[in-house]
């Protein structure tokens, strides 16, 4: 086996992250320079010869965002190649289905692609990572993707957390959402309920009735959590909510439960543990706990609005 061939041999991707996996593509393009249409180089392929992956984690595509992307592609073309793998006589999308859909709307006949021999496991992981890091999946789609990686490919929650640069508790909380009734999961997918709402509903005695109330009254996550806590206290006669934890050197004013709710909402958004210290005079601090440089990089990119 030549050195160049060895460099193009697919490797197990779990835990390497999207940058590393798609970095192989850029590396292959460099290795393939001067090799003509060799696998790894960017090439033009008819849109009709490409099919989406049936197990793509994203099921819902925002129509407005898709229309805007189609308009941009019609004016400038597809700037970033779509990643595909051989599938019969044609090709199957690994990463870039939004670009492919938008290219169809823009009436392009061909699109730039890079062909890679990814396995089923690598394909699913890359699709998951791309959607999480570039165009967020809704909570149910993300949870379903995690569940597939756990059940079909034997990945642990800890390994998944490392792969997507999020906390293990975030992955565990998402997987718990799949215990919700299908009607509530549908509302999360459609955006009527947030992940915070769904987490609160999990412990409700009548989850579907509570979901109806949330949508009808436009309840916030904090209001939903209070309803569930009040109902639980009414059932078992338990005492009031657990007291707000003390933070050394950071006294908190009243309303700590609202701060805890905000911490959970930020943690759901970032996938990391978030702590908020709130001083009586109004100032405070937000602390994000990360365990790897990749997690730090993800947070910086999200805060700056950059795309990976």
3D structure, described in words:
With 308 residues, the protein is an alpha/beta fold. Among the domains are: 3-141, Conserved hypothetical protein from pyrococcus furiosus pfu- 392566-001, ParB domain, CATH 3.90.1530.30; 252-308, no CATH class. It is 52% helix and 12% strand. It is built from 14 helices and seven strands. The protein has a five-stranded mixed sheet. Helix 2 packs across helix 5 (120-134) and helix 3 crosses helix 4. The longest helix is centred in the C-terminal third of the chain and has 16 residues, at 221-236.
CATH topology of the domain at 3-141, by name, is Conserved hypothetical protein from pyrococcus furiosus pfu- 392566-001, ParB domain
- Roughly how many Å apart are the termini? 33 Å
Query: How much helicity do the residues have?
Result: 40-55%
Mean pLDDT: 75
CATH architecture descriptor name of the domain at 3-141: Alpha-Beta Complex
SSE succession: HHEEHEEHEHHHHHHHHHEEH
Task: Record the strand order, biggest sheet.
Answer: 1-5-3-4-2
β-strand amount: 5-15%
- In CATH's first tier, which class of the domain at 3-141 applies? Alpha Beta
Integer-rounded radius of gyration? 23 Å
What does the largest sheet look like? 5 strands, mixed
Overall body shape: elongated
List keywords for this structure.
two-stranded antiparallel ribbon, alpha/beta, Conserved hypothetical protein from pyrococcus furiosus pfu- 392566-001, ParB domain, disordered N terminus, elongated, 5-stranded mixed beta sheet
Give a quick summary of the entry:
Helices cover 52% and strands 12% of the residues.
């Amino acid at each position: 086996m030549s050195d160049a061939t060895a460099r193009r041999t697919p490797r197990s991707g779990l835990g390497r992250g999207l940058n590393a996996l798609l970095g192989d593509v850029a590396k292959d393009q460099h290795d393939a320079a001067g090799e003509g249409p060799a696998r790894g180089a960017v090439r033009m392929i008819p849109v009709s010869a490409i099919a989406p992956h049936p197990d793509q984690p994203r099921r819902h595509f925002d129509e407005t965002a898709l229309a805007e992307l189609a308009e941009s592609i019609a004016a400038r073309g597809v700037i970033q190649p779509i990643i595909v793998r051989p599938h019969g006589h044609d090709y199957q999308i690994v990463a870039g289905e939004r670009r492919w859909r938008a290219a169809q709307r823009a009436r392009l006949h061909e699109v730039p692609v890079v062909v890679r021999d990814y396995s089923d496991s690598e394909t699913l992981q890359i699709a998951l990572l791309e959607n999480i890091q570039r165009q967020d999946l809704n909570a149910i789609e993300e949870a379903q993707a995690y569940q597939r990686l756990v059940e079909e490919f034997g990945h642990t929650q800890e390994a998944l957390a490392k792969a997507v640069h999020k906390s293990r508790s975030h992955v565990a909380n998402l997987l718990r959402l799949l215990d919700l009734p299908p009607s509530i999961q549908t509302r999360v997918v459609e955006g009527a309920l947030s992940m915070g709402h769904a987490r609160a509903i999990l412990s409700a005695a009548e989850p579907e009735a509570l979901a109806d109330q949330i949508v009808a009254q436009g309840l916030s996550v904090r209001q939903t959590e209070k309803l569930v806590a009040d109902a639980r206290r009414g059932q078992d006669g338990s005492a009031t909510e657990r007291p707000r934890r003390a933070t050394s050197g950071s006294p908190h004013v009243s309303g700590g439960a609202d701060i805890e709710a905000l911490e959970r909402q930020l943690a759901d958004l970032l996938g990391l543990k978030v702590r908020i210290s709130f001083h009586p005079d109004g100032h405070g601090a937000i602390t994000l706990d990360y365990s790897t440089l990749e997690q730090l990089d993800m947070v910086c990119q999200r805060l700056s609005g950059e795309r990976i």
